[in-house]
Amino acid sequence: MAKQILTAPDGPPSDVERIKRESNNLRGTLKEVFQDRLTAGIPEDDNRLMKHHGSYLQDDRDVRNERQKQKLEPAYQFMLRVRAPGGVVTPEQWLVLDDLADRNAGGKIKLTTRQSFQFHGILKWNMKETIQEVNRVLLTTLAACGDVNRNVMCNPNPYQSEIHAQVYEWASYLSEYLLPKTRAYHEIWLDEERVAGTPAFEEEEPLYGPTYLPRKFKIGIAVPPSNDIDVFSQDLGLIAIVENHKLIGFNIAIGGGMGMTHGDKLTYPQIAKVIGFCKPDQIVELAEKTISIQRDYGNRSVRKNARFKYTIDRLGLENIKEELENRLGWKLEEAKPYHFEHNGDRYGWVEGIDGNWHFTLFVENGKVADFPDYKLKTGLREIAKIHTGDFRLTPNQNLVIANVSSQNKTKIIELMDQYGLSDGKHFSALRRNSMACVALPTCGLAFADSERYLPSLIDKIEEIVDENGLRDEEITIRMTGCPNGCARPALAEIAFMGKAPGKYNMYLGAAFDGSRLNKLYRENIGEEEILSELRVLLSRYAKERVDGEHFGDFVIRVGIIKETTDGTNFHD
Question: pTM for the full model?
Answer without folding.
Answer: 0.95
